[in-house]
Amino acid sequence: MSKIKKHIFIMVDGLGDVSIPELDNKTPLQYLDLPFVNAISGSGINGLLDPVEPGLACGSDTAHLSILGYNPRKYYRGRGAFESMGAGLSMTPGDIAFKSNFATLDPKTNIVISRRADRVFEHLGPTLCEYLSGIKLPSFGDKYRVDFQYATEHRCGVRIRGPDLDDNITSTDPLKDNLPLLSSKPLDSSPSALLTSKIVNELSIEIHKALSIHPINDQRRKEGKPLANVVLLRGCGARIEVPTFQELHGLKAFMIAPTCIIAGLGMCLNIDIVKVPDATGDYHTNLTSKAKHLVSNILSQEKNYTFGFVHIKAVDDAGHDKNVAIKLEFLKKIDEMVGFIMNELVKSQEFEFSINITGDHSTPVRSGDHSYEPVPFAVSKLNAAFQYHQKSQSGEKMVPQMDSVARFDEISASRGLLGRFTGAEVMGIIKRFMKKKKKKKKKKVLCVDTTA
């Protein structure tokens, strides 16, 4: 009887990088020895992935949509709904939502001094979100309800509910520090877009008024800390309506994604979201806990999943923070996590696993922001990757099994069998690889001379 085929998808946010002088002009992936991750490359097929399209420095939301098989130019409606749903705010038709930051504003100049009031905000964010929920908009009476839900670090989701709302508006976020707080503007001439921009601008003002007098900011002012006195409202969006992931690909999926924007995106695709203790979506995350829950869910007979997706955020944070050491540290932790997954799933007698690893975009530590460089992609049969690793660690000299790539990094991947390809092709590659059968070795025939 043939084994049931299942797939593991490891998504490393902000994976790609460029050469770094202090790493001997290598990328972090080139600089490190990652034996388990390299085993996926050495035993499988490789390539360079443009998550959406070549030359585009994309966001995580559009990249994930594209990679999971949904054209972002057709389906993308802003990241606000993803962030808010992932944080725990339900979205119904007509609602709009924002991916938002607690930030620091100089009210005298209207300059956003810092788009992040504080990275360490877990003890403050929930309190401020509860305080702001239900905030009143004086010009609109009780027609609109505004709710806030804490997400992670300095981030929160903001949902507006009421009549005639439109997500075709600009944000209030200047996107860089030391620039003026923006006013929202309609992106078309419709009455609903004009109305919504007015609502958002009044909301921005009322948020600042409310936060400025909160005791938390009184205390931060005394301590000389940056104030969390404004919420930047960006990525206005409504819930997208798309075919479910199972309808599109024929795979029953779950997702481990503590980052709210990715979890919310998964919810929109009807992917089950698995909550994992101590998986925080930041530097404090517990990757072992993620790995254990990935293994238990993909092996569950009751849940019958055929596709497990795990998202890892900390590498992207390290890129944004321009911290080479932390990026290296988490890449090594990811390799250990991949090793745990391999060692557990290779024991299965009833399932045949394939596994891939890639990133949703590059976040070079030298620039501290998303860039347009492609990211490495590798996919292999899990058993083959496990055996490759075992042999290589025993001292056996290994050669790549399916193409000419033995290491998982940006330069090596360019020589891979897959070449350079876009996110729209990823799920097709994975599904074809899942169906791929192991070649049987030809039996040697012993020729016997029967002549007299």
Q: What descriptors fit this protein?
A:
single chain, about 450 residues, alpha/beta, 8-stranded mixed beta sheet, 6-stranded antiparallel beta sheet, about 20% strand, disordered C terminus
Task: Describe it.
The protein is α/β, with parallel strands linked by helices. It contains 16 helices and 14 strands. The protein has helices at 28-31, 35-43, 60-67, 72-75, 80-87, 125-132, 191-212, 215-223, 245-249, 260-268, 287-299, 314-320, 324-345, 382-393, 410-413, 426-435, and strands at 4-12, 45-50, 96-106, 111-114, 145-150, 155-161, 179-180, 230-237, 253-256, 272-273, 307-312, 351-359, 375-381, 420-422. An 8-stranded mixed β-sheet has the order 10-9-11-1-12-13-2-14, sandwiched between helices. Strands 3, 4, 5, 6, 7 and 8 form a 6-stranded antiparallel β-sheet that branches. Strand 5 and strand 6 (155-161) form a beta hairpin. Helix 2 (35-43) packs across helix 14 (382-393), helix 5 crosses helix 10 (260-268) and helix 12 runs antiparallel to helix 13 (324-345). The longest helix has 22 residues, at 191-212. The radius of gyration is 24 Å and the shape is globular. Residues 441-452 have low confidence and may be disordered.
